Amino acid sequence: MIKNFVEELQWRGMVHDVMPHTEEHLMEAMRSAYVGFDPTADSLHIGNLVPIMLLAHFQRSGHKPVALVGGATGMIGDPSGKSSERNLLDEKTLRHNQECVRNQLSQFLDFTSGEQNEAVMVNNYDWMKDFSFLDFIRDVGKHITVNYMMAKDSVKNRLFGESTEGMSFTEFTYQLVQGYDFLHLYQNNDCSLQMGGSDQWGNITTGTELIRRIGGGKGYALTCPLITKSDGSKFGKSEGGNVWLDAKRTSPYKFYQYWLNTSDEDAAKYIKIFTFLDQKEIEAICTEHDGQEHRKILQKRLAKEVTITVHGEESYAKAEEASNILFSKTAAEDIKKIDEETFLSIFEGVPQAELPRSEFENGLDIIGALAGKTDFLKSNGEARRALKENSVSVNFVKVKEGFMIEENDLINNRFVLVQRGKKNKYLIKVI
Questions:
Q1: DSSP at 244
Q2: Of 33, 296, 314, 428, which is least packed with CB atoms within 10 Å of its CB?
Q3: What are the strands, taking DSSP E only, across 64-124?
Q4: How confident is the model over 139-160, as a mean pLDDT?
Q5: What sections of 48-195 are H helices per DSSP?
Q6: For residues 139 and 274, what is the distance between their CA atoms, to the nearest angstrom?
Q7: DSSP state at residue 198
Q8: Is 429 helix (H, G, I), strand (E, B) or coil?
Q9: Could you read off the pLDDT of 296-332 as tens digits, one per residue?
Q10: Short-list 428, 407, 406, 426, CA closest to 416
Q11: Positive or negative CA dihedral for 347, 348, 351, 356?
């Protein structure tokens, strides 16, 4: 059964530009649409989630999604929104990255059901690798004028923007190569729609032009807004850089925390874009959240939905438990129950020192843990003052001068968490 895909995107705030008659075209029958993904890393990041959700909603509306991995275009570099060229990768690395990307997309898309609208993945390197330069400029290049290409914002911004480097011929031809992808998929995969971020409109419409001029047909285009944060900072970035979908690059705990820490304004927008919750349920969550913002009802539900989709129920449960530990009255007991990986992700970036296990065999004096054997506090005198102020904790339990840290105090038999006050934490790792 075909559902109204464009209408679904519109209430979610996911439509920036759409070519006329796209909605009618999609309501007539099952259609195929594609989105391109950059394979220059072995993981996608949350900046890729919007185009992923476009494909997921497309499939849920009864249509066939095509995920294109840009093996060929990844070797060139898209000038859209960039100020410099990207590093070029070899074929072996690109193939490895493609497989990693497919695994991540399979969390959102059905590749294996055997249904008519089962998702497929393609790599444009497969049809570009044997396409000679002479054949390309003869069969494709002659159909698009330089004037047409120069009029694109992605080209104008690089040629006349702040960058003094201009753009290479390689990047200038990018829109032709991407345009040819659309033509190829139109002719070979019956693909009539290309989707992407709003910065891709120029590249996508070059494809519709090639379909018209060479294929004698009609291609359609739909773009979504580029996601921004209300405070002006860049969406998808944390203090450590990109927020990745790969648990090895960004732990499920850190991933969960990213969504949990969004502002009320952003969370109200993101829950429509990044979850599959329906309009009625989202409105109910927002209503419950209003007036009791301190409970973070909206953020918690957003973080739950996205974390489960990307990492699964078990990882979400661990991330939520770890998140609650820091604010729990039973933190001293709870922290002993979490696994080492989650423990380390919670305290990633906390200053630390390594001490040999022998230091704990007869007990490590708290003064030594604070200053003598570590650099947490500046001196033994400062350590004693902190202890007199009753501001020192070991594994969330307040301690006094004379306290000895023993082996049975070690979390996961490896760690001791020392604190002065609520904010100053220090990790002692036993080696």
A1: B
A2: 314
A3: 64-69, 120-123
A4: 86
A5: 49-60, 91-105, 125-128, 133-139, 146-150, 153-160, 169-172, 174-189
A6: 40
A7: G
A8: strand
A9: 999 999 999 999 999 999 999 988 988 888 777 888 8
A10: 428
A11: positive
Structure tokens given for 275: 């979850």
Mean pLDDT, residues 167-195: 92
How far is 164 from 98, CA to CA, in rounded Å?
A: 34
**Helical axes 313-325 vs 252-260, angle rounded to 10°:** 70
Question: What's the pTM value of the predicted model, to 2 decimals?
Answer: 0.84
For residue 324, what pLDDT is reported? 83
Express each pLDDT in 239-288 by its tens digit: 667 899 999 999 898 899 999 999 999 999 999 999 999 999 999 999 99
**Calpha distance 70→275 (Å, rounded):** 26
In this structure, what token pair is assigned to residue 68? 């294109």
Report helix, strand or coil for 301. helix
Which tokens belong to 20? 């006329």
Cα–Cα distances (Å) from 202 to 24, 40, 209, 221, 237, in that order, read: 22, 22, 11, 10, 26
Closest by Cα among 72, 55, 53, 75 to 63? 55
Read off the pLDDT of residues 406-417 as tens digits, 9 standing for 90 and up: 999 999 999 999
Q: Angle between the 297-311 and 252-260 helix axes, to the nearest 10 degrees?
A: 150
